Amino acid sequence: MKPSSGRLFVAYNDDVDLKPHLNDVEKIGEAESGESAREIADLLGAELCPVRDVREALRKLQHADAVFNLCEGVLGNPRYEMHFALGLEMLGIPFTGADPIATGLCSDKTLVKRLLASSGIAMRPGCVQVWQGRARRR
Hints:
Rossmann fold, alpha/beta
């Protein structure tokens, strides 16, 4: 383990029990994300910050010099990915990854297609796929 020069944290999701929609393979992926976070923290000499309660995590991270952000959503909801990054940004904590606005835009395929089309970039038409009773845009 290499010692870090400041307070470096690796933040990762610790909310698999809040994701009843995951299948068994996806749950394995969640477990592997936690293992990867531990490996990264060890390599960087960083502290781990499992994120379940966003307020608690942000309190823990408020004096961090930097955060290696592995969070993909919070509270079991992937649509909230931008919110954790926004909290870090609002507290002035440097973090890895895209800024909250870019993350939010990229999570809305319909909006991204409209923005690209309005800039004159040709877009293929999308479609709605119904899977297990839920509609998903493609």
